[in-house]
Input
Amino acid sequence: MRYVATIALAVLIATPPAADACGRRGGHGGGCQPSCQPVFCQPVCYQPVCPPTYLPPPTPLPPQPPIGPPIKPQPPVRPMPPVKPQPPVKPRPPGPKEKIKEPLTKEKVTQAAEEANEATVQPVALAEGANDALVEVNNARAQNGLPPYVYDPGLAQAASQAAATRAASLTEGHTANDFSYLPAGATARAAGCAAWPPSMGWGACATLDTGFTHAGAAYVIGRDGRRYMHAFYR
Output
């Protein structure tokens, strides 16, 4: 019996205390982390009381200097003066009636071309075999409702020289330097040329251009039977 009691006592000492229904094991009340199983216990379990953690008192920050210059108080905003009513605008008196330009009709253009052709003169000698062609140029412009070019003798002489050079070499396009054929004192802003059979009539660039007022044109028949046409404009 003494040995049985000793064994029972050793088992009792070695066995840890059973947890209660709230999950606490004997003695320390579950530590600082409570465990509650509300199946076998009351709805509210006992909470362990844990010692507060020691925290040193906060160190006060030193006063900071102001950033930037101090803000000056702004003066009060003055109210805007009331807007004065403007006097009514007086109607503009009617001016003199402007003359209405008459529309440029095809008949008037043709008449102007005929007058320009009649006034066309040849004060300078053209190149050998050259024929003045400004009449053809102005006729083409009249058919398209454009005013005629004013005859320029210097440009006509240059056109005849360039046409003769091209006809002699059967050059269809421009020469190496068309403007080198201009006589002294003559100026031109553009030049046009073509090499067509006579049945095709006149052809050269800027024939129907509206940016020029004066011109000189000529053609020379080449040995191939074509007309080598040339014109200068300003």
Observations:
- Helices lie at 2-14, 106-119, 134-143, 153-169.
